[in-house]
Amino acid sequence: MSKENEYREIFLAEAVESHEELNRLITELEKKPDDNKPVDAIFRITHTLKGNASGMGFKTIADFAHVVEDIFSAIREKKLALDEQIFSSLFKSIDVLGDLIHSVKTGAKVQYRGIKTKLEVILKSLKEGEQSAPEDNEEANSNTDPSTKDHSITTVSNQNRIAPSDHAANTVQKESMSEPEPEENAKIIFSDHVQVPVRKLDNLLNLVGELVIERDRIIGLNAENMGGNEYSRLNRISSDLQYSVMDVRLVQVSFLFNKFHRIVRDTANQENKSVSLTLKGTETEIDRNILQIISDSLIHLIRNAIGHGIESIVDRKNAGKPAEGHLTLKAISESDAVIIDVSDDGRGVDAQKIREKAIQKGILTEAEAKNFSDDDIVLMIFEPGFSTADNISEISGRGVGMDVVKKALDSIGGTISINTHKGVGTTFSLRIPASMAVKGTLLFELKNITYAIPLSYTEAVLSIHKKDIYKVSNGLVTSHLGKTIPLVFLKDIFELSYANLVNESKILHKTYDRTSAEKALNIVIVSYNSRVMGIAVDKLLQQKEIVEKPLSKPFDNSKMINGVTILGNGHVCPVLNVATLFNLIFIRNYTNKKN
Amino acid sequence: MQDKKESKLKQEMEHTGESLQLIVFKLGEEDYGIHISQIKEVVLTPNITKMPQTPPYVKGVANIRGNIIGIMDLEEKFGIRPGITTDEVNQRSNYTLVIESDTFKMGALVTEVPNTLTIDASAIEEEVDLVHDKNVDTGYIKGIVKLEGQLVILIDIFRVLTEDEAEKIELAQNETS
């Protein structure tokens, strides 16, 4: 379905709902004409409807809603007294409004000008009444109203007589056709949208996931007996089903982004800064649950950008920047991922400051800190307990945060990168999967167990020999595309006793030492947050789309494994958690260097 | 929370009045019993996939009717015999007790088909003085059921599992510190 059609559906769903609400409210109002609440509500709803309709380009609805809105505005200001005749006009007008909304879908012609003109006449006479007899408004109204009403409802020609100015002959013609159809208005209109709790969608997605796994299992079992085409229909239908369910769960990022205006305003106020927010690509679609998971991270990044990034008004003026800081939230869809950029035009991340902090906190030695490039240094802000804010404010600087952002992203297989220029600004770029369900993975074997590694992390696969690997201190390195990268034998990591993770020296050399020189080693090159490393595995198998299931207790805090999937043969296949692996290796590097 | 569970179990026992049903299985030479409400089903042990960095008595995970369930070796956990590898488990044809509560789903390996046993609630001796090994928490032992020619050790399987959890949490804390 095209975007436009989808918007139209959303508009329709809302409009139908609004119309129902209007019907309810006006009935309520009729019972208690003195109550102001329904009038206010109707005024508000028609106003919204007018806005939405004109946004969608439905001019007739917008114009009509506008007139109704004006009427209720008059009622609200007590300029127009409610009596039976007014009510019948109002009911009629709301029915017509409903028809108009309905006609967006059906394309049916709705005769609306008569009632519209009538309302306009009421309004007009109100104004005239006000001008001519300002001392007696009520009377003026009641004088004009019955006349308009009576005539317009009963006869068409009278209608024409009363409102000759704005709508000329064609109005009359159409009017004459429309009026004698009261029956049709009695129809109850059902919305085309159904609201479903997310829980039910989750359940549906799980079931579809299991179906796909079961399909793969059956196909795997019978692969030898049957031709390849035997299952193609099953394959296609179940895949379509899967993507349809995934599609249902997609929501626009605007759903979340629009909430940030307020957060930016409040945060900026707290910090005595002036910040404007621009949203881009708000129609980008993403799985609702993923959006929920990253919402806190985005809030954090935004608060951080305002707290740390954007300078105070004085500083900005001194730097020759406009006093108002600028924050941009941008979402782009890229194959099966969504990239969300949070950019500010603030002071940028000060690599030097981070360098000092890292040394001060003992994470790096001075020599190392010098060797790290600025880009690498900036990544340190994602380490737990790292904060460069000089003063701790409510908003930022408690040393919690950036590592939490990273963790949230890790949990859904997303990555974050920073692009910062001192004095110009910072962009945090989040790359997150658009959907949770299906993941492209690379299957590999280690000690006769099949593991999966998400393709979002893999860069390349290599086949090298022992001579290409060098021992450096307690670790191993090899070269890839001219760069020296760390290398681990996954076997060594998995064999670490589960209590003691990293501190045994030489543990990462174990398999290397045992490997013979002739043996070709299969290496998967993985990258994570702009760091690259190689993982040596026993055997590379194939690429496969999998449905990942989360681990239940007591494995849910298992670090090396993110989740599992079920293979065609019914065996369980663990999905490697690349983020943890990187943390393990790189933190190990830090701690080793510390000692 | 643990106390609650315990008392709930007790209550269950008391409420059912005179008789209650146990699932009885052999660990080593002894008979162990679990209240029937804690067991969901007994299945042939499916292929188990070892998970890295888990306690040795956790043999890995298996696919039981589309659910991914952790499998543990109680004989190893209770120190009845030395541990065996996951590969060895996969080669034997064992049975797995699927244990389920609102929060837990686990499998426990048993070598023989378990029996059901209906006993008189009064046959449970709850206050048992066991020879305690200081280092082993035997809190999961709820009592001893004495029958003619048979002695069944009644265990609260959730207690065994929560201990496991507690251990993990402790471990995680050690790691981060």
Please supply descriptive tags for the structure shown above.
heterodimer; A: 595 residues; alpha+beta; Four Helix Bundle (Hemerythrin (Met), subunit A); Heat Shock Protein 90; 4 domains; six-stranded mixed beta sheet; five-stranded mixed beta sheet; 21 helices; 19 strands; flat; B: 177 residues; OB fold (Dihydrolipoamide Acetyltransferase, E2P); 4 helices; 12 strands; globular; disordered C terminus
Explain this structure:
The complex is a heterodimer of chains A (595) and B (177). Chain A is of the alpha+beta class. Chain A has 4 domains: 3-183, HPT domain (Four Helix Bundle (Hemerythrin (Met), subunit A)), CATH 1.20.120; 198-248; 251-433, 2-Layer Sandwich (Heat Shock Protein 90), CATH 3.30.565; 438-594, SH3 Domains (SH3 type barrels). Chain A contains 21 helices and 19 strands. In chain A, the strands form 5 sheets. Chain A has a 6-stranded mixed sheet. In chain A, strands 2-4-5-7-6 form a 5-stranded mixed sheet, with helices on one face. In chain A, a hairpin with a 5-residue loop joins β18 and β19. The longest helix of chain A has 29 residues, at 3-31. Chain A is flat, with a radius of gyration of 33 Å. Chain B starts with a helix and ends with a helix. Chain B has 4 helices and 12 strands; from the N terminus they run αββββββααββββββα. Chain B has a single domain (2-176), classed as CheA-289, Domain 4 (OB fold (Dihydrolipoamide Acetyltransferase, E2P)), CATH 2.40.50. Chain B has helices at residues 2-15, 74-77, 86-91, 157-176, and strands at residues 19-27, 30-35, 39-44, 48-49, 58-64, 67-72, 95-100, 105-110, 115-120, 124-125, 141-147, 150-155. In chain B, β4 (48-49) and β5 form a beta hairpin. By secondary structure, chain B is α+β, with helices and mostly antiparallel strands. In chain B, strands 9-1-2-12-11-10 form a 6-stranded mixed sheet. Chain B is 25% helix and 39% strand. The A-B interface holds A 210, 213-214, 448-449, 493-494, 496, 498-499, 501, 549, 551-555, 557-561, 564, 566, 569-574 and B 46-55, 58, 60-63, 66-70, 87, 103-106, 161, 164-165, 168, 171-172, 174-175.
